[in-house]
Amino acid sequence: MDPHLLRTFTTVARLASFSAAARELGYTQSAVSQHIAALEGDLRVELLTRRPVAPTAAGARLLEHAGPLLLRLDAARADVLRLAAAPPGRVALAASPLSVGPRLLAALPASGVTLHVLSPAQVPAAVATGGCDLGLVDGLAAISDPLRLPDVAPLTVTGVAEEPLAVLLPAGHPCAGRAALRLDDLADARWIDAPGIGTAPPGTRTALRYEGTDLHALCALAAAGHGLVVLPLRVAQAAGAGVAVPLTGSRLVHRSELLSPGTPTGAAAALAARLTAGSPYGI
């Protein structure tokens, strides 16, 4: 299957337009049509309806495969080019919002680093495809268990830190005066789903979905009563809004991991060493 044809197909499906796909890809509209026809001829099945432009059942199934396939190709290209390049003097670091904490702040050099704050789901792809030299990602995990990361490419993963958790409640919540809480105590509570920050505990009922990476906005929503959020204890206590109550009786912790496309070199190696110095969570 020609990856150029596959990339054209995914672009047409995403934009629902042959002409818009042609403009984005820099092709003529007839070339885009030829790409789609060639791909359909190769697979011997119709992938898109034309009026309106939309994936057929077979096209929808192909889209499920296309994203990971194209990402792996981009990752392979970046990996080869990275090996051929001289060690860079600057470092591009992708970090999820909750991983920007004291360890990262202490490890950053005075200059030479570009910090990209991305959602946890975006960090592995940014490292795999060469957009960033290193990635710092976080999430909820059982004690000493690795995070469940998307399989975008072979990446070196090193545990950096594990922290206790707290739930952020509005000041008037019935549990706001408790010294500690178990997740079972909040079985009927409503939560904020914030995938861009990555705080929702598994199996919880969401009241509001927050699409963003602004931690201050998320804490303000929780403090205003729009739903509860689980955060690292240090973050919840420093939120300046709502009431932070530590979670107890659970094996869940907030875990941070460092991602690299192999063995870092140059300035990236120095930053990686500072980030993982003294960490007992190497995996």
Low-confidence stretches: none
Main β sheet profile: 5 strands, mixed
Count of helix runs: 9
SSE class: alpha/beta
Question: What are the key terms here?
Answer:
283 residues; alpha/beta; five-stranded mixed sheet; 9 helices; 12 strands; 36% helix
List strands and helices in order, with pairings:
Blueprint: H1 3-15, H2 18-25, H3 29-43, E1 48-50, E2 53-55, H4 57-84, E3 91-95, H5 102-107, E4 113-117, H6 123-128, E5 134-142, E6 156-163, E7 165-169, E8 190-193, E9 205-209, H7 215-223, E10 229-232, H8 233-237, E11 243-246, E12 252-260, H9 266-276
Parallel strand pairs: 3-4, 3-5, 8-9
Antiparallel strand pairs: 1-2, 5-12, 6-12, 7-10, 7-11
Describe the structure.
Strand 3, helix 5 and strand 4 (113-117) form a beta-alpha-beta unit. The protein has helices spanning 3-15, 18-25, 29-43, 57-84, 102-107, 123-128, 215-223, 233-237, 266-276, and strands spanning 48-50, 53-55, 91-95, 113-117, 134-142, 156-163, 165-169, 190-193, 205-209, 229-232, 243-246, 252-260. The chain starts with a helix and ends in a 7-residue tail after the last helix. The model has no long low-confidence stretch (mean pLDDT 88). By secondary structure, it is of the alpha/beta class. It has nine helices and twelve strands. The radius of gyration is 22 Å and the shape is globular. The longest helix is centred in the N-terminal third of the chain and has 28 residues, at 57-84. The chain is 36% helix and 23% strand.
